[in-house]
Amino acid sequence: MEQYRFLMIGAHPDDMELRCGGLAMRLRRKGHQVMFLSMTDGSAGHHRMTGDALRERRRAEAQAAAAALDVAYRIMPVADGRLEANLKTRELLIREIRTYAPHVILTHRSADYHPDHRACGQLVMDCAYLLNVPLICPDTPCPNLTPVILSAWDRFKKPLPFAPDVAVPIDDLVEKKIDAALCHVSQFYEWLPYVEGWADVESAATFEEKTALLRAQLRARFAGEALLYPALVPDGVCFAETFEWNEYGAPLTDELRRAMTDIPAEK
Q1: Which of the 8 DSSP states describes residue 150?
Q2: Angle of CA points 264, 108, 52, to nearest 5°
Q3: Which of 84, 193, 235, 245 has the lowest tally of Cβ within 10 angstroms?
Q4: What is 5-261's CATH superfamily?
Q5: Is 108 in contact with 155 (CB distance < 8 Å)?
Q6: Where are the alpha helices (DSSP H) in the chain?
Q7: Where do the domains of the chain lie?
Q8: Do residues 244 and 151 make contact, with C-beta atoms less than 8 angstroms apart?
Q9: Using 50, 70 and 90 to split pLDDT, how confident is the model at 72?
Q10: What is the pLDDT of residues 190-211, one digit of tens each?
Q11: In angstroms, rounded to a whole number, what is the distance separating the alpha carbons of residues 16 and 28?
């Protein structure tokens, strides 16, 4: 089987851990290359910490998650909460994609609750055709490779609901995926309980109690996709990650589908 390079592009440190962490580990175990790219620095994701201290903390958390998943990890120099689908950022992303030359890009859809997520998905689509236009960003050579583009699951229905084309079973990986997500302590133990109103986590007396509550919450979250799309996963699978093919990229081949899932093409 061909060895692939996967580039998983999220708006923030922790986005792709939640959406693609299981797939990332499965790919690495099979010898494929995986890089996570966060388009912002995470510097707005807290209610007490600010500035350089938060930025550096989130960078360290991302590196801990990278070690847990056995992936490379890069963070772009764009301020959290200020990502825009503009020419400057598009050209930054074109250079990142060309340098890594992925066979596959995974990212957000351009319909999402967070403006950074929307901008991230839009930027990937805006880059797609231009990746092989030599006079755009001529300082970074074109890879002459058109990547497949896949969008990760989200719950939003408008303008169009998510329609999965591939599901990746992660029952054997879900606990390690949770480990990687919880490397982002500033988010799961502090910021998200505050902003999302997770009163049980906020009021838990010890770190261990918070961890138990968070693990149960994340298991329930990661079980949702397998429940929503049972026709795409083998019988008995409880946890899955699902992805929608984006027609701005190359076709999703049966070989690539098998590389991601180990499920025969006819399933």
Answers
A1: E
A2: 130
A3: 235
A4: LmbE-like (3.40.50.10320)
A5: no
A6: 15-29, 51-69, 87-100, 115-128, 174-181, 185, 192-196, 199-203, 207-228, 254-261
A7: 5-261
A8: yes
A9: very high
A10: 999 999 999 999 999 999 999 9
A11: 15
